[in-house]
Amino acid sequence: MGGATGLILISANGSFSHVSWYPLLIVLATVMYACSVSIIKNKLQEVKSILISGFALFIVGPPTGIYLFTTDFIPILKSNPHAMASLGYVVILALFGTAISIVIFNKLIKVSSALFASSVTYLIPIVAMLWGLLDGEKMVASHLIALAAILGGVYLINKKSTRQT
């Protein structure tokens, strides 16, 4: 985390007045993610995964709804002939791509180690890269290097210690 923060700050050539602070939100999100995994594993072991997931989504629902209805969402929904179909696809994605996957992830945290469960998320960039390939994007050497780094990191994290005492 310190390395990521350092790279963000260095990219501004040492001047804090030119730092884009938005990338630091990624660092904050990563810290919050680690706290979430730790709390689920250590404090919420007896709570059903679906309740944890439902509560988490319930908490973000109202602020998200308030934001949504301060945009031109309703007028576009009424005027665009494809808007309802698009909204339907978003609902499907929300259910299957988010809600169900969060329940499964929370269950995975409970039945395995928090470290293993959190390392599963390192596979997200790989899946994203595969979607890009299916969409016709080109794969370059830097993609392969990053892929190898991700897989190597997951391997090292999950490798059983062979140290003898």
Features:
8 helices; mainly alpha; single chain; disordered C terminus; 165 residues
Quick description:
The protein has helices at residues 2-10, 22-42, 49-68, 73-79, 83-111, 114-119, 124-134, 141-158.
Written overview of the protein:
This protein is mainly α and about 160 residues long. The protein has three domains: about 1-45; about 45-110, no CATH class; about 115-165. The protein has eight helices and no strands. It has helices at about 1-10, 20-40, 50-70, 75-80, 85-110, 115-120, 125-135, 140-160. Helix 3 (about 50-70) runs antiparallel to helix 5 (about 85-110). The radius of gyration is 20 Å and the shape is globular. The two termini are about 30 Å apart. About 5% of the residues are buried. Mean pLDDT is about 80; it is low at about 160-165.
